[in-house]
Design brief:
Radius of gyration: 40 Å
Number of helices: 43
Strand order of the largest sheet: 4-3-14-13-15-16-17-18-21
Low-confidence stretches: 1-12, 53-95, 125-184, 202-214, 873-879, 1245-1255
Structural class: alpha/beta
Strand content: 15-25%
Oligomer: single chain
Length: about 1500
């Protein structure tokens, strides 16, 4: 701490000691949060005002404010006394100054690394800083082709621009980089920064991995051959001095109490102080005896339930007393012992949600506690329910609260006497302990152990009768209880109890009491010594010369040494003798393990060891010179207890004795340890009944030992050294680190400026089979974003330098938000719990998975290609059939002559208009569910004629011209389509622009019109106005529209002659759509393909004129267009048209229509299904009351070009089962650009199924997700790890053949092998019209041939990965059914670490990670995985998601997330088919247009 705050070093200035003390006190107030930063600056300036001129002239090299001194020597030397002020405190953790210098020197070695700072939205900043504010970007967006269900139910999804390769002339200024990303984008520069940081080599070089067949095996850390190994001899069991025999030693603690209470009733036992330090009450031994008797009598005789006594001997009773009331606690404790009840002291619960309170409740429940003793004042302060009773705390059993103040106690009758038995193995009391994981256990202590422990402490500490002892510790447990409540009574000592509240107000109080009471012994923690150091300026007159022992209860903490040294330094001049300081080591299970004895009690001189931290991490002790950076200085905790045997055993596995130079767990065998964990036999055996063995496996003793949870070794003079606790042990890649040491290192990085020093937690979480270090600190409210971020980066570097270990996650939370432990400090396990649940709400996060995670599986190397011959042989040898399947053969079917007649749809419509003129073909519903318009065969024919006349006369079009149809979903769209066919023009259906969102939707319309070379636009009057409006002019050049014809008023003229194509291969229409990767592609459909498509669908779905089907799909492309515009005319069935847009104002519209018209077959999209599931989830009862009944539905098909969404279809089926929807009704379809209908699965129920063409139910298989990454299919059982459910996509349509081909060799693959789905069918499209975005796109998409096997057939490549699997089921023809499983689009897959990932799998994992993640999308950018999540919750949860997202993707996919972007709901663009537009999202992110809440760049 050479650098003080003013920007110059105060050490160069001769400040008087009292000024230095005042400064130190200010520092303390600030660090504990008792004074604001402003107040601190003011007071400090005042103090220094007189010395400022001196400071002005300081040598600039000392002004180490923002720079780190070049070397440790450059740090100004600080006087010993000054050092003591600036050591940083924490409940049990302190730094030695050597350590601070080491950290500063280590940091100086690093050049300042430029790490990308996370970006944060203004509102999230706890402390806003202008520099990190992301301004909204004014880049004009490229045009959009995705407008569909623009407004989702809950949030409007802004349509991010969607066509990726824009034709020249569109905002070409944006498209300076190849990817349509502005070059000057801040985001990409940050990503560049991140990449530069990640290019640095990782510290542990990645070892060679091993890979079995294809399974990804995580790297197992191979031990470093050069790591230090223990070389000493095996240690022997250490024997403590024998327990001395004392004459008239009482046979039990209660016998001692009775003796003093009756023979020395006036002797003082305990003095209680209030928060001013005034003695409020002194309890005498007589009073303690009489009041304990009264309480014992009352508990046993006066408390009844249903006329039975409430308690019987051996029952457990909770003691709930505040830290300020030791008197009542002592009475309650001894009262219980006298009544042969077992006290269970616990903390006072303050709120229903105290940290760890639930686990305490679990302990009380498992101990069968029904009664809690407390004081009147405490009971009044507990939270009450309406009835005035104390509330039942979360997880607690129901308790009766009994107040033990005098007026509630009854006087024992003359003939009642308690039974004072000799100390036995019965349980005397239960002490609670919270484990590292946060569970609370009760440790049982027997009467015999309690007595033996008092005896051993009396001997070790040389206690004598009537001595005075000052106790600063919590008297309910641990050393505070052992010295201040039990051993004190044994020896008739007088205890002065200092409450925590008094220490907070006056840290010197304990020293003043030692002085005024001339106490011989004080029991304190390092923290208390540290606090008093910072406040000792006015105390010239205190003297500590009366002390013969200053017992440091947490002397086993490695950082207590600097407190002891500093304390001695200051107080030696006030009568404190060096040998008085006695650190001790204890554990809840083994009680006191070792304590340093003063020389008069025969103790050897104290020891100190300077150990290499690197060797310690391997469990090896190597003394190091103090020059090295990473050393740990530890002091001894004295010798072991009288009558004890101690040994050190290996931490893991069999308890072998350690070698002399090896760190292990200290184990104790004596009559004075705990007995068991109450009610937990398994772990009791492990801890309390350990049998240490020698290297040859021989037990060292026939007596079991108790593990202490302390890690250490035995040094010279048989002194015990402790270097850490099992609870704080973090094992990363086989090396052990101590949480306290990591805290100390973090504190050494200029902590005072940015974080509260007492408020840092370090713990580990297991991610990907190894411990990962997490550091959480409370940030000061005045620290700026940049400061905090810089502090975080420096902490990472310091820990990396000193401990050679990476920190996985560093989080800063707002001041005062971490859960507190009962007496100060942080509740670590609760903090960890909150971190894992995403409830920590940090304000800053830095994750470093790239640095830490070194055990990922080996990246996959692609195997050299297998030759065709061996491939075929391989398949045959393996008995694999080639994976191919086909629908029914259309040439054998009965409707062949009809098929010839129906070759041209224009002919079909005319034929229907003549034969069944009034047969209704279409019903269009509006949002109210009423019929908006209808069309019979004749009406449709007439309207088509009028359109054809208008095209020829008004539009002056020629045969073969292209016409864009820009209509809302409705009958107009259908009529104009047939009008174009009548006139010999080529129609292109286009979704109209969204009037509220012209800027992004109109350019798409313009683009399709231009790309399709449309000579004319047909549309309505309203849209005509819109296309020519002023708003439209802002988005596109409206002067370049082709002729626009408004079809609302057309001449009623008869068409002279209807155009008839010369060949069925002539173009019928163009089908334009945008792929999810943002590519606009138009495919050509010939007349032959169009009629073949209609015929296949008719045969598969059994469509006849008498049928009705309901369609809730967009009518612009793909199967949606075919079902809406083509099929009814071909098959003659009636279509009820429900535009999906209408569902936004009436969600139940589609299902109500299905029910009202008793529809058997209906089609919808995933977005419609999702709207129904989300929007109607709570309304099924209301719909039933309205008479909605779905039992009529035989089949409900979801039209999609993606892997079936099982979770959605299942929840839809489950939800509407209540309305009669059959579980088998919902099925999926599959189509793509090259063939819009490959699979349809119409289910039939009942008799029809036997006669009909229906296939079997769609089957679901479970595949291993890890195998999929290697392009392999491995079937596994449901519920097995890494399993992914896949549902078949439906039954293959008649006339369609499907084969699975290798993506690279283009050879055929075997059954259940993953490859590209290829399709051959009369209704394949004949080619791309143009593909924007990739000019040279793939002629071979439509004319691919296999590289071997059947090389004649011409196939179209779908661009989707999938596999075929022959099932046990048979279809109507008796053939075994081949199921087609679609895994995902090849264009969408992410190639990472040589493996192929499907975004949806990663997204599914991420959405499960936290309840507030509404939606997620992933993409890659420069080989970094970017995860965008929509936060549906308060913005303070945003940063919780960063770690959870990173964890889940690592655990389930073995991938490191590069960037986590948290955005508002509705930001991820979704097209009309309900598919995520990940590429637009990527472009929007890189162009800085998403306005994210937070962007985290993982290091």
């Amino acid at each position: 701490m050479a650098a003080e705050r003013g920007g110059c070093s105060l050490d160069a200035v001769p400040l008087p000691p009292e000024v230095r003390e005042s400064l130190a006190e200010l520092e303390l107030e600030l660090s504990e949060g008792d004074i604001t930063q402003k107040g601190y600056e003011k007071k400090r300036a005042k103090l220094l005002a007189r010395y400022i001129p001196l400071i002005q002239g300081v040598d600039p090299s000392l002004q180490a404010e923002n720079r780190v001194p070049g070397t440790s020597q450059a740090t100004a030397v600080v006087s010993k006394q000054q050092k003591s002020h600036s050591t940083n405190s924490r409940d049990e953790r302190f730094r030695s100054d050597v350590h601070t210098e080491a950290v500063q020197a280590a940091l100086a070695k690093y050049k300042e690394r430029k790490m990308p700072m996370p970006s944060k939205r203004r509102s999230v900043l706890v402390h806003s800083s202008v520099e990190t504010y992301t301004p909204p970007d004014n880049h004009s967006a490229p045009p959009d082709v995705t407008t569909g269900l623009v407004e989702q139910l809950h949030h409007e999804r802004p349509q991010v621009a969607s066509v990726r390769g824009v034709p020249r002339g569109y905002n070409s200024s944006i498209l300076e980089t190849g990817d349509g990303v502005p070059v000057n984008s801040r985001v990409s520069s940050k990503i560049q920064q991140l990449l530069n940081t990640l290019k640095r080599p990782k510290r542990p070089p990645l070892k060679e991995f091993f890979v079995d067949d294809f399974e990804e095996l995580l790297e197992v850390q191979q031990p470093d051959p050069n790591q230090p190994k223990p070389e000493g001899n095996q240690m022997n069991v250490l024997k403590g001095e024998p327990v001395s025999v004392v004459t008239n030693w009482p046979p039990s603690l209660l016998a001692a109490l009775q003796r003093w209470g009756t023979t020395q009733p006036k002797a003082p036992c305990l003095t209680a102080l209030d928060t001013t330090g005034k003695a409020v009450y002194t309890l005498t031994y007589g009073k303690l005896w009489s009041r304990s008797l009264k309480l014992a009598y009352t508990l046993l005789n006066k408390l009844t339930s249903r006329n039975e006594p409430l308690l019987k001997p051996g029952d457990r009773v909770a003691l709930v007393f505040p830290n300020s009331d030791p008197v009542m606690f002592m009475v309650a404790f001894y009262g219980c012992l006298l009544a042969e009840l077992i006290p269970v002291p616990i903390e006072v619960p303050l709120t229903r949600k105290d940290a760890g309170s639930q686990q305490v409740g679990f302990l009380l429940g498992s101990c069968g506690v029904t009664l809690a003793l407390t004081t009147d004042a405490c009971q009044k302060g507990l939270p009450k329910s309406q009835t005035g009773e104390v509330v039942t705390f979360k997880g607690w059993p129901r308790l009766i609260w009994f107040v033990i103040d005098g007026k509630h106690l009854a006087k024992p009758t003359k003939d009642w006497h308690p039974q004072l038995r000799d100390a036995s193995a019965e349980i005397a009391y239960i002490e609670y302990k919270t484990s590292k994981e946060g569970s609370t256990v009760g440790i049982t202590i027997s009467h015999a152990s309690m007595l033996a422990h008092c005896h051993a402490l009396t001997q070790a500490c040389g206690y004598s009768e009537a001595e005075t002892l000052t106790n600063v510790l919590d008297f309910k447990r641990d050393a505070g209880l052992w010295h201040g409540v039990l051993t004190s009574v044994m020896n008739r000592m007088h205890v002065i109890s200092i409450p925590y509240a008094l220490m907070k107000v006056n840290p010197l109080s304990w020293i003043q009491k030692v002085c005024s009471y001339k106490a011989h012994v004080a029991v304190v923690k390092s923290r208390d010594m540290h606090w008093s150091l910072l406040a000792q300026r006015d105390q010239r007159d205190v003297s500590l010369s009366s002390l013969r022992m200053l017992i440091v209860a947490d002397g086993a903490n490695p950082w207590s040494i600097s407190s002891c040294d500093a304390f001695l330094n200051v107080f030696q001049s006030r009568g404190l003798r060096p040998e008085v300081i006695c650190p001790c080591a204890s554990s809840s299970e083994a009680l006191t393990v070792a304590i340093r004895r003063p020389p008069e009690l025969g103790g050897p001189p104290p020891g100190k060891a300077v150990l290499s931290m690197n060797c310690l991490s391997y469990g090896v002790i190597r003394v190091d010179t103090e020059e090295k950076l990473s050393v740990l200085t530890v002091q001894d905790v004295g010798q072991i207890m009288p009558g004890a045997n101690v040994c050190v055993v290996k931490v893991d596995g069999t308890p072998y004795l350690c070698k002399a130079d090896e760190v292990g767990e200290i184990c104790v065998n004596s009559g004075a340890t705990g007995m068991a964990y109450f009610g937990l036999l398994g772990i009791t055996k492990n801890v309390f009944e350990t049998v240490p063995v020698t290297a040859t496996g021989v037990p060292v003793s026939d007596q079991p030992f108790t593990r202490t949870g302390l890690l250490g070794f035995v040094g010279p003079d048989y002194l015990v050294f402790v270097v850490g606790k099992l609870d704080g042990l973090i094992t990363v890649s086989g090396r052990r680190h101590n949480a306290d040491d990591v805290v100390a290192t973090a504190l050494a990085v200029e902590p005072m400026k940015f974080v509260y020093r007492g408020r840092i937690a370090v713990f580990s979480v297991t991610v990907l089979h190894d411990d990962r270090i997490v550091l959480v600190a409370e940030q000061r409210p005045d620290a700026s974003e940049e400061d905090s971020f810089q502090w975080m980066s420096r902490v990472l570097q310091a820990i990396d330098s000193i401990h050679q270990v990476g920190v996985y996650c560093l989080a800063l939370v707002p001041a005062n938000t971490l859960p507190k432990a009962p007496l100060g400090g942080i509740h670590i396990s609760e903090t960890k719990q909150r971190f894992l649940e995403g409830a920590l709400h940090p304000c800053n996060v830095l994750m470093c998975p790239h640095t830490c995670v070194t055990n990922l599986p080996k990246p996959r190397q692609k195997q050299p290609d297998v030759g065709p011959a061996s491939m075929i042989v391989g398949n045959l040898v393996a008995g694999k059939r080639i994976a191919q399947a086909s629908g029914r053969d259309v040439t054998q079917l009965e409707d062949n002559d009809q098929a010839r007649k129906f070759l041209y749809l224009a002919d079909v419509l005319q034929w229907r208009a003549q034969t069944t003129p009034d047969h209704p073909l279409f019903l269009l519903l509006n949002s109210k569910g009423t019929v908006a318009s209808t069309a019979s065969c004749m009406q449709l024919h007439k309207r088509a004629e009028r359109v054809a006349v208008a095209l020829m006369e008004k539009g002056r079009l020629n045969v073969g011209d292209h016409v864009a149809l820009v209509y809302p979903p409705g009958v107009d769209l259908i009529a104009t389509f047939y009008g174009c066919l009548y006139a010999g023009c080529i129609p292109i259906t286009v979704r109209p622009p969204h009037p509220q969102n012209l800027a992004t939707t109109l350019p798409t319309v313009k683009m399709i019109v231009e790309v399709s070379k449309s000579a004319c636009i047909l549309t309505t009057q309203v849209i005509t106005k819109l296309l020519k409006s002023k708003e439209a002019a802002a988005a596109v050049d409206i002067k370049t529209w082709p002729t626009i014809l408004d079809t609302d008023d057309m001449p009623k003229k008869k068409l002279a002659n209807i155009f008839r194509p010369t060949s069925p291969d002539m173009l019928a229409y163009l089908d334009f759509s945008v792929s999810t990767t943002g590519i606009l592609a138009g495919v050509k459909m010939s007349h032959a393909a169009t009629s073949a498509l209609c015929r296949s669908i008719k045969l598969q779905c059994e469509l006849y004129p008498s049928r009705q089907i309901a369609i809730c799909l967009d009518p612009y492309c793909g199967l949606g267009f075919a079902l809406w515009c083509l099929c009814s005319v071909y098959s003659g069935h009636q279509s009820i048209l429900v535009p999906p847009l209408e569902l936004e104002s009436n969600v139940s519209l589609w299902l109500s229509a299905v029910s009202q018209y008793k529809v058997r077959v209906t089609f919808c999209s995933y977005s419609v299904m999702e709207m129904c599931t989300k929007g109607l989830g709570t309304q099924t009862d209301m719909l039933r009351m309205k008479g909605v009944n779905l039992s009529c539905v035989r089949t409900c098909m979801v039209v999609a070009e993606e892997r079936p969404r099982i979770a959605l279809t299942q929840s839809f089926s489950k939800l509407f089962k209540d309305l009669g929807l059959s579980a088998r009704a919902v099925s999926t379809t599959f189509g793509c650009r090259v063939n819009v209908a490959i699979c349809l699965q119409p289910n039939r129920l009942g008799k029809l199924a036997e006669q009909g063409t229906a296939g079997p139910d769609p089957t679901t298989v479970y595949v291993d997700m890890r195998a999929l990454r290697h392009d392999r299919v491995r079937l596994v059982e449901r519920g097995s790890p890494h399993s992914l459910p896949l549902m078949e996509s439906g039954k293959i349509l008649p006339g369609v053949k499907v084969i699975i081909a290798h993506t690279e060799t283009k050879g055929p693959l075997g059954d259940s092998h993953l490859g590209e789905i290829w399709v051959s069918s009369p209704h394949n499209a004949t080619g791309y019209y143009t593909v924007y975005g990739e000019e040279a796109l793939h002629a071979d998409h439509f004319t691919a041939r296999l590289s071997f096997g059947d090389t004649q057939t011409i196939w179209a490549r779908t661009g989707y990965l999938g596999f075929l699997r022959r099932t046990e089921l048979t279809d109507a023809s008796g053939e075994r059914h081949d199921a087609l499983y679609v895994v995902g689009s090849l264009d969408e897959t992410l190639e990472l670490r040589g493996m192929r990932y499907h975004p949806i799998d990663i997204e599914t994992s991420v959405i499960r990670a936290h309840k507030s993640i509404a939606e997620c999308a992933v993409f890659t950018w420069t080989n970094l995985l970017v995860v965008v999540v929509e936060l549906e919750g308060s913005e303070q949860e945003a940063l919780d998601l960063v770690a959870l997202v990173t964890n889940v993707v690592l655990e389930e996919h073995y991938l490191i997330v590069g960037v986590v972007v948290i955005v508002d709901p509705g930001v991820i663009p979704i097209n009309s088919r309900g598919e995520k537009q990940r590429m637009h999202l990527r472009d929007g992110f890189l162009a800085d247009q998403l306005d994210p809440i937070y962007v985290a760049y993982n290091m």
